[in-house]
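# step 3/5: fold
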Amino acid sequence: MTGTRNLFDGLTRDRRERLREVVTEVTFPGGTRIFDEGRRADRFWVVRSGQVALDLHVPGRQAAVVETLGPGELLGWSWLIAPYVWHLGAQAVRTVHAEEFDATVVRALCEADPVFGRAMYRTVAEVVADRLRGSRTRLLDLYGPQGSGTVPG
């Protein structure tokens, strides 16, 4: 696992090594549907290059893009929280090169090693919290009083 910002920097070297043992390099050409909202979440990815659009199903309309992910970002967190179904959909905007992890294997590693598990849960929780903050800001920009979504400098 490489990159300027390693998502798993909070893990010890031996625990990062465990993840390296279960990673698979994958490529999604632009336009490829990676997963769909409501389907089984059985894997996750760390984007190395390219761009992924996260979208939300809107009945009777085209899916609404709610966020775009790029290099170094975690794609998928629903694999860690039962009932393990995707909360959003994802599509490659530009060709994506990513590291893919089998969720069942990583969850088993978390169960077998509580320190590793706590670190993984913390990492994913930080990603989820950051995305919720970003969603809140975007909603305020769209629907709140003018300027209410801007974060003070």
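# step 4/5: annotate
Confidence is low (pLDDT under 50) at residues 1-5.
# step 5/5: archive (pending)
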